[in-house]
Amino acid sequence: MKKREAVIVGVADLPLKDGKALTPMSVLQVQALVARDALKDAGIPMREVDGLLTAGLWGVPGPGQLPTVTLSEYLGITPRFVDGTNIGGSAFEAHVAHAATAIEAGRCEVALITYGSLQRSEMSRNLAGRPSVLTMQYETPWGMPTPVGGYAMAAMRHMHEYGTTSEQLAEIAVATRKWAQLNPAATMRDPMSIDDVLKSPMISDPLHLLDACLVTDGGGAVVMTTAEHAKALGRKPVYVRGYGESHTHWTIAAMPDLARLTAAEVAGRDAFAMAGIGHDAIDVVEVYDSFTITVLLTLEALGFCQRGEGGAFVSNQRTAPGGAFPLNTNGGGLSYAHPGMYGIFLLIEAVRQLRGECGPRQIQDAVTALVHGTGGTLSSGATCILSTQ
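The line above is the sequence of Thiolase; the predicted structure tokens follow.
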């Protein structure tokens, strides 16, 4: 019996202006709009969706919210495969893995992955911040800002162990901004220098304001089906060649090693093993950039450089347009958008790069992409390796 191959065949994201949705709407409307557009991109009608995966409905209140049930009702579909896994910003890379296994097992034919948030538009009505939880007994009572405080602790530890500098972290922010300047959809496109990053307000030592991601609205959707179905539709498929996922902790006090992303090491190792390729086969990399330190730690954990070498690896604008290592080519969470959980936008940009749809920021002859999401406070990691071959 011929193996069913799972592929990505449609993507879409929500247009923004100054980081906000173009018109007032609900989070369900955000998800419906991006779902509609991703399915149009795939050439598949909504009624054929029989797999639904989502990581929560930001802005939809109520205890015990059932995100896949609420969303399927709103979309008017009856899925036979559902997944509400929420491991933070890496959830969507995990969803791709879960949808791939479901499709290959025949549990669904068309899987729809969605996310929506009105985080920026609703800030004036959401002043309470994150709720306290018992496991944060070593952070909350002492006033540690969440989540930036945990990332700042990791950055400080990496600096202590390896001599990493604030200038090296700033290299990441500046390179990402250069990619955003090539993307008309990016929220922040003004020129930015390393000095600009270092002179921006310190928000949690050693992280400055420009080391941190944006706060925006946003929505995204990914459509998956079989390679055979994609061929019948006349769509260029993006194959899911490898994936992995893991998580180690929720609160930063429980992180096994502040200077090491164990979850990303596990996820990346499994993804590369499944894909059967090495690092030199990757043409473009999209990794979560909630903060600049997130990027540096992720590159080390995925094996693109050794532990402690991340600072040197990103220096001299290596990850900027024209550099040797194309990274976060839409501007990332630092300059493009960051609506709470960013992982789905990494997938969308990777697919567009592999399909050659990125205009002035297009990576020439891109065939294989690595996507890695990070969730929580450096808590979870999920990796996907995508390819057009």
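Note on the example: Residues 27-42 form the longest helix (16 residues). Residues 150-214+243-387 form a domain with the Peroxisomal Thiolase; Chain A, domain 1 fold (CATH 3.40.47.10).
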